[in-house]
Structures are given as C-alpha cells and as structure tokens.
Amino acid sequence: MPDRIAPARLCGFITLALQRLGLPPADAAIVAGLMTEAEAQGSDGHGAIRLAPYARRIREGGYNLRPDIRVIQERPAMALLDGDNGFGHLVMHKAAQLAIDKARTCGVGWVGARLSNHAGPASLYARMPLAHDMVGLYFAVGNANHLPPWGGLDMLLSTNPVAVAVPAGEEPPVVLDMATTVAAYGKVKAKAQRGEQMPVGWMIDRLGQPLTDPKRADEGFLMPIGGYKGYGLALVVGLLAGTLNGAAMGREVLDFNKDFRSTTNTGQAILAIDPAAIGDVAAFKTRVDTVIREMRGSERMPGVDRIWLPGEQSHLRRQQSEREGLALPPALLAQLDTVARELDIPTLQSA
Questions:
Q1: Residues 19, 109 within the same domain
Q2: CB-based contacts of 130: which residues, under 8 Å, 6+ apart?
Q3: How far is the C-alpha of 161 from the C-alpha of 141, rounded, in Å?
Q4: Are 208 and 147 found together in one domain?
C-alpha cells in the first residue's frame, strides 16, 4: 500500500532539493509547487517522478539555472517569450501571468514561448486563468518524439498536449487535459517504474503488433487518439506551439529522456480569454453549470454508474490529496530517497 505524504511536505522536500541543486529559492518554490500540484491531481507521470531526471539534467548542464526569461516580441494581445533554457515551469508560469494581464485589457491574450523546457501537465497552465474567471488554453510540443506521421515509421511528432479550462459557477471547472496520443509518455514511464504492463492500444511495435511492456517502449511508438485525426491534431498543435514560436518541431525535437545536456528549445503557448469582453461573467458561469448538470444527469448506458465531466476526477483527487495525503508508491519513494542521499538532505519520510 503506498505511503501517504502531505502535499506541503512533498513540496518542501522538492524545494530543498532544487535549491541544493542550484535554483534560487523563489524559483525552486515555484517549480516545486507546480510539481506537487501535478502529483496531487493524479498526473503521476509529471510530478515527483520527474525530480531525479531534472536533477541529472541540472548536473549535466542541460538547464540554465539563472535564466533571463523575457519578452522578445509583443503586441497588445500577443507576446513571445524567450525562456533562456530555464525550467519550463518558470517560463510557463510567467507566460500565463502575461496572458492573463493581456486578456484583462484586450479580452484575449496569447503568449508563446521558445527555448523553454518540460513544464509538467498541460492542465497546470490552462487552469491558471480560472482564478481570474477566465478561460485558459495551453499547447505544447512534447520533449521526445514517440509518434510517426499516420502510416509512417519515422518518429517526427511527440505527444503534443492540449488543455482547455472553462470556469463554472457552483460546479467544478471543466478542465480537458489530453495528449494527442492515447497515453502520454509520462504514463509509460510511470508504468515501468511500478512494474506494470500497459493496456493494449497504448503502443504498437514497428510491425504493427500491440506492445504492452513499458520497458520495451523504444521498440515501438505511441498510438494517436482517433487514428489519423490524432496525427493531424498532433501536427497542428506542434505548428502552433513549436514552429510559430521558433521552437523545435519534427526532427529538431530532442529526446530529453536520453540527452541531458543539449538545449531542448521546447515550444509552448497559452491563451487566456476573458468572458467579460463578451458578456456577463456570472451569467456565463451559470450557463456552464447548466451544461455540466445536463451532461452528468443524462441517461446512462447499462452498467455505467456515473457520467464524468473532464477534470472532475482530478478535482476529486486534489481534494483527497489535501484530506488524506499523497499516495506515493514504494519505487518512487526509493527514487526520492536516492536523490536525498545524493544531495545530502533529509529524506522525504524523515523530513
């Protein structure tokens, strides 16, 4: 049975680890907070499991620990950030705040980024405008190519996630967070760490046969959602988040699971939409509540206990995490203990 760890305790542990690795205290706190939030909502492929590879990338010089994250192109409703090879969490945290500020003035704010890095689950950033009663959309180029063009074998596309967050009134917000592949590669890594098999349909080998052993993931590739439509969506997201921003796309994408030194030049983009520019915000949120209740209350197929809205299960996981603590599997705790010993800091369970 996984141990339960208070979110604040995990956040403090990650903060201390990142500070020991050289991040300034304020930056370490931001990154740790977002990693902990990912863990709390059930995005286990993007939470604490990432600390060890982040630490290795820092040690091998793959990150700029004192980046000058700055605007290099700007118009009233748009901007382009240069992430200066800093942590993606820091780049997109700044991008989200800038998009929100622009949306207050212009009704919409689009901010793209280049020379960024892996930033965790897409929903973290799509959700940020919710605190301001705004709609958030997020797009990114993944940090390794695991998807060929439809019918091909060359790995030219990544999971290229997209997330959309829509505020509601009395109901939890609607938050769609999805890879353009059936499963994000982080979930494959989490399965491998736990010694579990993947479901049929996540990956196939180069002969088109199902691949279920996550430790053999290099022998095949992820499957796109919806067949050729998922391939098309991955391509378009990559063009918006990568190519438009002058970031890596296609053969330029670096596999950060194998190369811990080179600059990834990851591309991301966030869009904030202020409903107040269109009409009454409270009325909009009430209408969203109505739609949510219609969906949830609609007739169910035999054997279906509940109709879920996008983001509802993550919302409940966050509540459970705050109430009961985070369930961290033994393999992950062992990995974090190794990081603690390497950095000469207290282990998570002894902190």
A1: no
A2: 136, 165, 167, 173
A3: 7
A4: no
**Per-residue confidence (pLDDT) for residue 2, from 0 to 100:** 54
Q: How many CB atoms lie within 10 A of CB 175?
A: 23
Question: Tokens representing 85?
Answer: 């090879």
What residue has token string 């990693």?
35
Residue 205 belongs to domain spanning: 182-223
CB 344 within 8 A of CB 56: no
* CA–CA distance, 188 with 6 (Å, rounded to integer): 25
**What stretches of 21-149 show up as alpha helix (H) in DSSP?**
25-40, 51-59, 88-106, 123-126
Q: Are residues 164 and 197 in the same domain?
A: no
* Tokens at 332, concatenated: 């992950």
Same domain as 49, residue 135: no
Q: Cα 13 to chain center, whole Å?
A: 21
CATH number of the domain to which 213 belongs: 3.30.60.50
CATH assignment at residue 336:
1.10.1530.10
Of 98, 106, 83, 154, nearest to 129 (Cα)? 98
**Same domain membership, residue 107 and residue 7:** no
Round to whole Å and give the CA distance between 32 and 19: 10
> In the structure encoding, which two tokens stand for residue 297, read together?
């209350």
Mean pLDDT per 10-residue segment, the chain (351 residues): 83 98 98 98 93 97 98 98 98 98 98 98 98 98 94 94 98 97 87 91 92 92 94 98 98 94 98 98 98 98 97 96 94 95 92 62
pTM of the model: 0.93
Q: Which phi and psi (to 5°) does residue 110 adopt?
A: -115, 125
Task: Give all strands (DSSP E) within 179-311, no chain letters.
Answer: 203-205, 210-211, 220-222, 266-273
Total domains in the chain come to 3
The answer on 268 and 135 residing in a single domain is yes
